Amino acid sequence: MDSKKILIVDDNADIRLGMHLRLKANQYETFFAADAFAAVAEARKHRPDLVLLDLGLPAGDGFIVMERLKQVPFLAVIPVIVVSARDGLGNQKRAYEAGAKAFLQKPVNDDELLAVIRRALGEPAGTKKPTLYDQGSV
Amino acid sequence: MTESTRRSSELTAYLSHELRNALACIHQFGNILVDGLAGELSSEQREYVGIMLENASKIRKVLDSALDGTPDPIEESTNKIERVSKLET
Which of A56, A63, A112, B60 has the fewest CB atoms lying closer than 10 Å? Predict the structure, then answer.
């Protein structure tokens, strides 16, 4: 079975690498973009099954990316999960209004991220080796 | 909105963004190490990474409290101890 493709959009290279390692360990194929312009270009190129989208980006922000994705029929159907360091109050509401499937505030719990991804992709809930952090002891 | 309120709000947003991104990296890579995604750790190494993650988690709780107004569990527990002490005296 082909791996599902996930586009990681974040201007922080360390975050991109960390997400890539976690997603790769869970059998997802990843692609990357570091700004709003590249996000749309990479989405056109790879046609991912899902987009993990930061809000604070160079060359526009995550909301602009969602607007641009909606303008292209084959990109408009891709589920978007916002993963942002911005405060959740106004941004969460705005993200849902813009069509996001979920809003997660950094730092994100790995289990929660994977559960939200699986739900957005229509996959069954999976299991991951629990970590100290996931067990609530950290 | 006054100029000082606006600047304060911008500073809060900036601090939230920068600190949460840095914490996200610490959590991500700490858990990657603990989960063995970069190779198995010895029990001592796991313990040390666990200490690192535990302290990162404390910073996150303080940050949530300071920036988002959610209750700070450390402060709450201190207040509870103080209240109990007052009741006992």
Answer: A112
